[in-house]
Design a protein that fits this description.
The longest helix has 30 residues. By secondary structure, the chain is of the alpha+beta class. The strands form 5 sheets. It has a 7-stranded mixed β-sheet. The protein has a 4-stranded antiparallel β-sheet with strand order 16-17-13-18. The chain has a 3-stranded antiparallel β-sheet with strand order 9-8-12, with no helix packed on it. It contains 28 helices and 18 strands. The mean pLDDT is 91. The chain is globular, with a radius of gyration of 29 Å.
């Protein structure tokens, strides 16, 4: 049959083994299946029929010929949209296709991931919202064509939901509309692949000046090994995360009631804490009070960036607030309360279920993963309360035990590697890690003037927030809050300043690393074309152009005028440092310059500019127009539109996340059953055995974690600790037998 898509006709025919290979290069493949089981959505549905297309022609592939079709095309690159799902469906229907071997060989692409990674490189977000990365959306964005999903068959039933009735029937029996729908999806996937690949290549070809860029040869190597924009890393991780979702976490039935009671007590404690800030979740006017609390927090911590919605309100969604949780105790408590509420709802509603299945998002802006319970309606496995009352309710299957393994201070290791390789710096941090020294004790010892061996546990604890907070550019004021929220360490401003200075003295390369600053007034002056010359032309006031030191520089951009503008956008009655009110002509000039970029602001802030209505929210929005820039990870992923803090965090967080994803793939390909993944930690289920069996399993897990990370961190020591447990504990530690060979 001839299928018309995007203005072109393509012939699609049923494929049979006698046809042999029909494609010489990459082809897209789309599966249609029986309905996904609403009660067990993590299971792969049955394969009904598939279609392959290379952009010129296509074939329909029935279930009996599935393995033969891929065997006839052993070296071709295969393209899917949501590859983790399609690969699972194909592997379930025909395991002999061995398509995961092609993933190992970097011959599988996922256009959904390609789109999300390109969006990260162009716009700075990952198209994670509902409907933002569907094939329909991608066809519209990259091909400029509609891909209708509301097609119905002769009975008026939605085609996309009714393929199950054609299971084990030949294409000749199917209504043509089902084949047309399938063929259009395959053609669209190939078209999107070609378009996104070209656009990604163009993006990377012009990114030579981005912070973190090493060289053309470096980027070519990264793209070859890890895929353009680290596509191959994320494809592998998406496959393993789907498997983790399918494996699920088993509940200890005997402790379910205890768990629910612990969660209720925790929820009451958290509600009381939120009430102290002036916010009562779910109460009358709670949304208004939440806005008031966030406004107060933003005012108290001007160095933190509290995101706004397009309507000019403070954003309250989890993704918007997530990056603030480490630095603001209210935000941290709010998000913890929400997770406890979700978790309590999950457990209360599913007490009879022996297994809970999380979902995962393979890519956030920083490069990390995230977890959520909304898709399967069960749990966020990466943000469970840390108390053992909750985590210890999760147990291995009968006859199995857990190996709980995690990286040791890996983000400091990736930071040191980036300093060495990405920025060409001599790294004292790398040297200290490779010597096996305790970085927290080193920093505390330098500040206190004692040897590392003399540092107490409390003194070491106070150094932790410095080691983990300063690399992201955290200021000393924020550091005191971060220390209390995350480490229970009380730092007064003098201690924070002293520890910060000790950190920079201990690791002098960090001064250069952190020197990637932004000059907001200078950038704002350039954006708004604020010059002494234009000020004089608008106001008739010669005070700036007549000063001798400005002679010949009248047309240069003037940061001082930008500082004036920031005051005008914030204060109803702006004054000079001497207390003199700004003149009306000065204010008119500054507002008129802001008019030229008002379209770039959220709708509420555009109205504020038009009405000449100053506020702190408007000032923040104006400042948000500048100070953002792209950044590369050492693995070769470009992130656009990142703030100063986000750029620095991306360097080491993104690299650590990529190394952990490569390690996950190694574990999965080695046959390990991974049941949870929390950034730098894996929970692996292995057969119960002797102490030596445990040690063998643990050391093999450790080896895969180290080898995966070493693909990206070859010059800095990678440490992994592990323990064998009969349930999930917060702080499990390994205990070995007298020989040291048993765990």
């Amino acid at each position: 049959m001839h299928i018309r898509f995007n203005g072109r006709d393509r012939e699609f025919v049923p494929w049979r083994p006698a046809a042999g290979p029909v494609f010489g290069g990459p082809f897209a493949f789309d599966c249609e299946t029986t309905l996904i089981d609403d009660n067990r959505p993590w299971l792969a549905p049955a394969y009904v029929i598939g279609a392959a297309c290379d952009g010129e022609r296509g074939v329909f592939v029935t279930r009996p010929y599935l393995a033969a079709f891929f065997a006839a095309h052993p070296a071709n690159t295969v393209v899917f949209h949501n590859a983790a799902f399609d690969l699972d469906v194909i592997a379930t229907a025909a395991p002999e296709t061995r398509l995961y071997d092609r993933v190992d060989a970097n011959r599988v692409y996922d256009t959904q991931l390609m789109h999300r990674l390109l969006t990260l490189g162009e716009l700075g977000h990952t198209s994670q919202g509902k409907g933002e990365s569907t094939l329909e959306r991608c066809a519209a964005v990259y091909l400029g064509t509609d891909l209708p999903k509301d097609v119905v068959d002769s009975a008026g039933d939605p085609v996309r939901l009714c393929y199950g009735k054609w299971l084990n029937r030949p294409p000749g029996d199917m209504e043509p509309v089902f084949l047309e729908y399938l063929a259009a999806d395959a053609a669209a996937t190939h078209g999107v692949f070609e378009a996104v690949r070209e656009r990604t290549c163009d993006l990377l070809a012009t990114a030579g000046g981005v912070w973190g860029y090493v060289s053309d040869g470096w980027l070519d190597d990264r793209s070859e090994r890890f895929g353009p924009q680290t596509h191959h890393i994320h494809l592998k991780a998406s496959i393993v995360l789907r498997a983790i979702s399918s494996n699920g976490l088993h509940l200890d039935a005997a402790r379910r009631d205890e768990l629910a009671e612990s969660l209720r007590a925790l929820q009451l404690e958290q509600r009381a804490g939120l009430r102290e800030y002036g916010y009562l979740p779910g109460g009358k006017g709670s949304n208004k009070s939440l806005q008031a609390v966030l406004q107060l927090r933003a005012r108290q911590h001007p160095s933190l960036s509290f995101p706004l919605t397009e309507a000019g309100q403070f954003a309250t969604a989890h993704d918007a607030l997530h990056d603030l949780a480490d630095a603001d105790p209210f935000v941290k408590l709010l998000l913890e309360y929400r997770e406890t509420e979700k978790l309590l709802g999950s457990f209360v509603g599913k007490m009879a279920k022996p297994v809970l299945h999380p979902s995962f998002n393979v890519l956030t802006r920083s490069g990390r993963t995230s977890s959520f319970g909304s898709r399967f309606g069960e749990i966020n496995a990466q943000n469970l309360p840390k108390c053992d009352a909750v985590r210890a309710c999760f147990v291995p299957r009968t006859g199995y035990e857990f190996i709980d393994a995690d990286y040791a201070t890996i983000e400091l290791g990736t930071l040191a590697q980036a300093c060495l390789t990405q920025f060409g710096l001599t790294s004292e941090m790398a040297a200290a890690i490779n010597r096996g020294e305790d970085l927290h004790k080193l920093v505390a010892a330098r500040m206190l003037g004692k040897s590392p061996g003399e540092v107490t546990k409390a003194e070491r604890q106070k150094a932790k927030p410095v080691n983990f907070g300063k690399p992201g550019g955290m200021g000393n004021e924020t550091l005191t809050v971060y220390a209390k929220v995350n480490y229970g360490a009380r730092l007064d401003p003098e201690e924070a300043a002293a520890l910060s200075e000790s950190w920079l003295d201990q690791f002098p390369e960090m001064r250069a690393f952190l020197a990637d600053g932004t000059d907001t007034p200078a950038e704002l002056a350039e954006l708004l074309d604020l010059t002494r010359e234009s000020h004089f032309a608008s106001t008739g006031d010669p005070r700036f152009v007549q000063r001798p030191r400005h002679a010949g520089r009248e047309g240069e951009h003037c940061p001082f005028l930008a500082m004036m503008l920031l005051k005008v956008t914030r204060d109803p009655d702006p004054t000079t440092t001497a207390g003199e009110p700004y003149s009306g002509t000065d204010c008119d000039y500054l507002w008129s310059r802001l008019d030229t970029v008002a379209a770039q602001l959220p709708p509420a802030q555009r109205k504020a500019v038009s009405a000449r209505r100053p506020s702190r929210a408007l000032q923040r929005a104006v400042m948000g127009l500048v100070g953002r820039a792209p950044v590369f990870t050492l693995s070769g992923r470009l992130r656009a539109n990142a703030s100063y803090s986000a750029r620095h965090n991306t360097i080491f967080q993104g690299l650590a996340a990529d190394g952990a994803k490569l390690a996950l793939w190694r574990l999965w390909r080695a046959g390990f059953r991974v049941v949870n993944f929390v950034h730098d930690q894996v929970l692996v289920e292995v057969p119960a055995g002797t102490p030596r069996d445990r040690m063998r399993h643990a050391q093999e897990v450790r080896r895969h974690l180290i080898d995966g990370m070493r693909e990206l961190v070859p010059d800095v020591r990678v440490g992994v600790s592990y323990a064998a447990t009969d349930r999930w504990y917060k702080d499990a530690e390994a205990v070995t037998d007298a020989s040291g060979e048993g765990l």
